[in-house]
Write a structure and sequence with these properties.
CATH class of the largest domain: Alpha Beta
Strand content: 25-35%
Structural class: alpha/beta
Order of helices and strands: EEEEEEEHEHEHEHEHEHEHEHE
Helix content: 10-25%
CATH superfamily of the largest domain: Medium-chain alcohol dehydrogenases, catalytic domain
Mean pLDDT: 96
Number of domains: 2
Distance between the termini: 19 Å
Amino acid sequence: MTENREIHLAAYPVGEPTLENFTLVRGEVPEPAEGQILVRNTWMSVDPYMRGRMRNVESYLPPFSLGAPMEGSAVGEVVSSRAASVPVGATVTHFLGWREYAVLDAAAATVIDTTLAPAKAYLGPLGTTGLTAYAALTEVAPARAGDVVFVSAAAGAVGSIAGQLARTLGAARVIGSAGGPAKAEKLVTTFGYDAAIDYRAGSLAEQLAAAAPDGIDVYVDHVGGDHLVAAIDALRPGGRIAMVGAISGYHATDPVPGPANLFQLAAKDATLRGMLIGSYFHLFPEWIGKAAPRLADGTLRTEYTVADGLDQAPTAFLDMMRGANVGKMLVRL
């Protein structure tokens, strides 16, 4: 019998997680029942939202159960099938990552076309990562011709796509923030940003004012905290903010205070709108239809940071939360 390995959450972390919060468990490969498939996972994703599921509180997704396999997006090959709709040999995406083999209902898997793009792309630009950037800039905080757009965590999985997308939507100037000079340089040289802010190099507000002296129209927020405060200050009348994430507060053990300048949104007739990507899955065909040709011809530039082996998944997650990745952080199984 082939061995199956899984990553379980051993304990809910208090503050920043450590490797001790995870455990590697060995077992047997499960057998599919009628209507199910067995998938050998080849790639899995680690994402910031997973930190929220490491708290024993109810939210838009339930918390991870202790002593059970964690979950997340994955790509794999169907090695056994008891469902006519998904044959052996198909490559599928699904939500049972953090393990080497997964049994799931065929209806919970999506067959992907690996002639259109490599399998890993369906966890990055053609997955919820790319879709988040697209929904944020077309529906949540629409970018319009002539806008000045600001994106935080701009070298990350969503931000590296959002800057390029803002340009195709007609933005006149696109500004990104990232941590460290190497990432800041990559924003301009690789991901098409007009200006880059290294938030570790000095006052974020002053750097944003220098990059956008007349203000900004759109802000795609992945960070919260001082980034959100600076963006509200810089927002022009009628400005729009898409609240995608707030990673600066994900490890907080006490309630995180809101921005003191929040009422400026009223004074500026501006909007701040949160988003859950599950509300925008209807845009997937539209986004893939636009993104796949640009991936193929190289006009949509993406990068991956890859960790090898399921045993490295916890480290990959912790590194991603600390900003060690450029582009999408993936684990190759």
